[in-house]
Design goal:
Blueprint: H1 2-9, E1 17-19, E2 43-45, H2 54-80, H3 93-102, H4 110-139, H5 145-151, H6 155-172, H7 177-186, H8 192-218, E3 231-233, H9 236-241, H10 246-254, H11 261-269, E4 270-272, H12 283-300, H13 345-348, H14 351-366, H15 372-397, H16 400-411, H17 416-425, H18 427-430, H19 439-454, E5 465-468, H20 497-508, E6 513-516, H21 519-523, H22 529-572, H23 576-625, H24 629-646, H25 652-673, H26 681-702, H27 711-722
Antiparallel strand pairs: 1-2, 3-4, 5-6
Helix pairs in contact: 1-2, 2-4, 2-6, 4-8, 6-8, 7-8, 8-12, 8-14, 11-12, 12-15, 14-15, 17-19, 17-22, 20-25, 22-23, 22-24, 22-25, 23-24, 23-26, 23-27, 25-26, 26-27
Length: 729
């Protein structure tokens, strides 16, 4: 009887101790590793045993439940350790039945395998205890049942909770980070022996996590075959479907070099899987781990776009050519073999730094318990190392300031002479409605001419600039255009009202876009959201500069007409009273034009000097004092946010008023230059009235309490208020 009991304690039933599931009338078979777990113990004494006292039967049935738990835990461990394929030739029909009924395969899990290794350790202790009991029973002349219960007493505390644990794991298909979560919760109990056991199981799970962390944070390799790590690779289909339309995704990818896998990985390749993130690891620590791994990937395998020191030389422009050579479409990043310096992972991430990271993770791995503070401290230290090395790459080797200066020159119009020339060259073109099929190509000619006139060979970043006009849509309508009238000086060239209106709705509202390609610029743009901010500011500043130019041109045109009239009056004896009447009629209009020019001029000066240059100096100071790439990204975002807010682009009411003012200014200029003053007096008076309304509204908002804390805005508002004191011309 005692030997039957000892066999049952190791999971082997017989005639005296039976398994109720194996003795079902419909299926008398042995259970395999693949059979489902029972919800409750099924080891029982045979019902026909009459020689046992009720008290002994109760004790034995309580003890043999440990044999049931042992067998189920062993089956779980064998299955999780991928040993279930080792079967005898007479495979259990029950396993085939259950596999057919379930109709699915169990997903492999390295975390379950680690848990199984911990369970095997506990079961080995249990087997040793059973062996020790057998030795004691054989040595005693009068073996008693109490020897068995006394030797296995501590396992009544361990095996039942472990069985409940694997039952929950099987039922809910728990694996990966969710398994660590479950074990961490089970650690919090009031039984010291059970707490120690669960902590040991959690330690085994953490060994897998630390191995994955080491692979990710030391070598930049995501080793996660079964999708259990909280850092996961984002598949192509997920990238296309997540929050963005296909057009937006294509635009994002278009801003990167097609051959630059590192940049694609950085922006779209990896993300935090919240489903696999253990609850005891804070989100900011997980993001630090994500950043560190991505940084190590860049440092270990620098992309082709960063295999050289500095920037490509300026692309030579053929003087006098009116064709846009080298600027059509998106320019590929050029490399100069004379300055090319191949960068290796050893140079970017010294082995000593990698060894330091690995040593920190090894210390965490060898600790018997998981200490949250030690873990977070180690992750922060690793992130600091990665951020510092990435800072060395981006700021020192890749000339971050040069790229930021290029963004400032071309997105923020710091190269005023280039854009002044471009707007002058394209002035006549922009007075016509844009053609959907050729609008971008039409602008390439003035763009090239402006570059020939103003861009020198020392500007090594201009070769990465291209002009793009995505989404050109102009509503066409059948319009009868008036015939051109001869001017008093013999010139002809009338701009119709229809053309003016279509031009306002076409070129001004068109999303003109300067694309500045290059790997380091892309590294500062998080999923292209910062690109949109740059584009927004660029469109705003370009329209403002165009409005200022048109106001100046209208004044120059008027002065030219006056000089022509004066010359004719002297040579032909023209009646001076007619000229005086004409000048008297024009005087109120020039006063309105001067008010417009004063407002636009002050606004442009404020944005370029008090906003752009001021914030640029702040950004430069931050860059000089920082040695952390993550800080640089934050400073760059603050820089753009300040540009947006201090340029009124985040205040809808101000932005709409300024938009309307610029449209009114352009309409006014085109009416003046059309030489149809007599016919358009009512329209000009209407434009002047609308301008006064909008400018007064703008002044009221600038003096409001919402932006009362910004002294520069008060200055701008006060300057505009003083514009009413401008004397008549």
């Amino acid at each position: 009887m005692l030997h039957e009991l000892l066999f049952a304690l190791l999971g082997y039933t017989g005639d005296l101790i039976i398994d109720e599931r194996e003795h079902q009338e419909t299926l008398r078979v042995k259970l395999s590793h693949g059979a489902p777990l029972a919800d409750e113990p099924t080891f029982k004494l045979a019902p026909d045993l009459s020689f046992l006292q009720p008290s002994d039967r109760e004790v034995i049935e309580r003890v043999i439940t440990l044999g049931f738990y042992y067998r189920e835990l062993e089956r779980f461990a064998a299955k999780s350790r991928n040993l279930s394929w080792i079967r005898s030739s007479n495979e259990s029909p029950l396993s085939r039945v259950t596999d057919t009924l379930k109709g699915k395969k169990v997903k492999p899990s390295v975390y379950r395998r680690a848990l199984a290794n911990g369970i095997v350790e506990v079961l080995s202790l249990y087997r040793s205890a059973v062996l020790h009991i057998e030795q004691k029973l054989l040595s005693d002349s009068m073996p008693i049942l109490a020897t068995v219960t006394q030797g296995l007493n501590k396992f009544f505390v361990l095996l039942p909770p472990l069985y409940e644990l694997i039952l929950e794991i099987e039922r809910d298909n728990v694996y990966g980070g969710r398994l660590l979560n479950l074990l961490h919760k089970r650690c919090h109990c009031g039984v010291p022996e059970l707490q120690t056991c669960i902590q040991r199981l959690l330690w085994h799970g953490h060994q897998v996590m630390y191995n994955q962390l080491a692979s990710w944070m030391v070598y930049g390799i995501l080793h996660d075959q079964y999708g259990e790590f909280f850092v996961s690779r984002q598949e192509e289909e997920d990238r296309d479907s997540e929050h963005d339309s296909p057009a937006n995704v294509l635009e994002k990818l278009a801003n990167m070099s097609t051959n630059d896998v590192a940049l694609t990985d950085w922006h779209l390749g990896f993300h935090i899987s919240l489903d696999m993130l253990p609850e005891y690891i804070p989100m900011h620590i997980a993001e630090s781990i994500l950043f560190a791994g991505k940084a190590i990937r860049v440092l270990r395998k620098p992309s082709h776009g960063i295999q050289f020191q500095g920037a490509p030389p300026y692309q030579q422009i053929q003087k006098g050519s009116q064709k846009a050579q080298g600027f059509s479409g998106r320019l590929s990043l050029q490399k100069d073999t004379s300055v090319e310096t191949l960068l290796t992972g050893e140079e970017l991430l010294p082995q000593s730094e990698a060894d330091k990271i690995e040593a920190m993770l090894q210390d965490l791995k060898e600790s018997s318990e998981f200490h949250k503070r030690s873990f977070e401290t180690a992750v922060d230290s690793i992130k600091a190392i990665a951020a510092n090395r990435l800072w060395q790459l981006v700021v020192v080797r890749a000339d971050l300031n040069g790229h930021l200066k290029a963004l400032k020159d071309y997105f923020l119009l710091a190269k005023g002479d280039f854009f002044q020339s471009f707007l002058e060259e394209s002035r006549q073109l922009m007075r016509l409605p844009p053609r959907q099929s050729t609008a971008e190509a039409d602008l390439m000619v003035p763009f090239q001419l402006a570059a020939i006139k103003t861009i020198g060979e020392e500007d090594k970043y201009f070769s990465r600039v291209s002009l793009r006009m995505p989404g050109v849509t102009v509503k066409s309508s059948r319009v009868e255009l008036p015939k051109a009238k001869a001017h008093s000086d013999g010139d002809s060239g009338v701009q119709s009202d229809t053309f003016a209106e279509m031009s306002i709705d076409g070129w001004i509202a068109l999303p003109l876009n300067i694309l500045l390609t290059g790997p380091y610029i892309c590294s500062l743009r998080r999923k292209c959201s910062l690109s949109k901010l740059y584009l927004k500011i660029f469109q705003y500043l370009l329209r403002l500069k165009r409005t200022q130019m048109e106001l100046e041109k209208s004044w120059a045109s008027a002065m030219h007409q006056d000089h022509s009239d004066f010359a004719k009056r002297r040579t032909d004896g023209m009646n001076s009273s007619i000229s005086q009447q004409r000048r008297q009629r024009f005087r109120p209009l020039w006063r309105v034009r001067e008010h417009m020019a004063f407002l636009i001029r002050n606004l442009q000066f404020y944005i370029q000097v008090d906003v752009v240059e001021s914030q640029w100096n702040v950004l430069q100071a931050h860059i000089q004092n920082s040695h952390d790439f993550t800080e640089l990204v934050g400073f760059h975002q603050e820089y753009l946010s300040a540009l947006i807010s201090q340029s009124f682009l985040d205040i809808g009411s101000v932005s709409r008023i300024l938009d309307g003012i610029m449209k009114l200014c352009l309409q006014f200029c085109w009416k003046i230059e059309s030489q149809e003053i007599k016919e358009s007096t009512a329209e000009l008076e209407h434009i002047a009235e609308e301008f006064n309304k909008k400018s007064n509204s703008l002044y009221t908002i600038l003096r409001s309490s919402r932006i009362a804390g910004v002294s520069e805005l008060h200055f701008l508002g006060a300057s505009f208020c003083d514009s009413t004191l401008i004397p008549s011309l």
